[in-house]
Amino acid sequence: MSTLDNIEVDITVELGATTMPIHHLLRMGRGAVIELDATEHDPLRIYANNTLVAKGEVNVEEGHLRVFVTDKVFKIG
């Protein structure tokens, strides 16, 4: 198992996405709200090294933000 300890994997959890002009982004201040293409009921997308590997949901419990994996995504080919 010590060989696996040295493998780096970047994990990204995507709540949703949007496209906006850079000048809108630059004008945003603290507390600004960015509207995403997903609702709170849509599954999160979980990526490992920019590859979709799972879908999940977010949960807040005792002040901790948690991501639960609900579906694994298998890509063959």
Describe the structure.
This protein has 77 residues and is mainly beta. It has one domain: Surface presentation of antigens (SPOA) (Roll), CATH 2.30.330. It has one helix and four strands, in the order E-H-E-E-E. It has one helix at residues 22-27, and strands at residues 11-14, 44-48, 51-61, 64-72. A four-stranded antiparallel β-sheet has the order 1-2-3-4, with no helix packed on it. The chain starts with 10 loop residues before the first strand and ends in a 5-residue tail after the last strand. InterPro entries: FliN-like_C (IPR001543), FliN/MopA/SpaO (IPR051469), FliN_T3SS_HrcQb (IPR001172), SpoA-like_sf (IPR036429). Keywords: Cell membrane, Cell projection, Chemotaxis, Cilium, Flagellar rotation, Flagellum, Membrane. Its main location: membrane.
Cα separation of the termini? 28 Å
Using only C-alpha atoms, the radius of gyration works out to 16 Å
Strand proportion, as a percent range, falls in: 35-45%
What does the overall shape look like? extended
Overall tally of structural domains: 1
Known CATH architecture: Roll
Number of distinct beta strands = 4
CATH class: Mainly Beta
Q: What is the name of the CATH topology?
A: Surface presentation of antigens (SPOA)
Going across the biggest sheet, name each strand in turn: 1-2-3-4
Supply the number of helical segments: 1
Query: By CATH's scheme, which homologous superfamily applies?
Result: SpoA-like
Low-confidence stretches: none
Range of helix content: under 10%
GO molecular function, one term: cytoskeletal motor activity
Pfam families: FliMN_C
Subcellular location: Cell membrane
InterPro entries: FliN-like_C, FliN/MopA/SpaO, FliN_T3SS_HrcQb, SpoA-like_sf
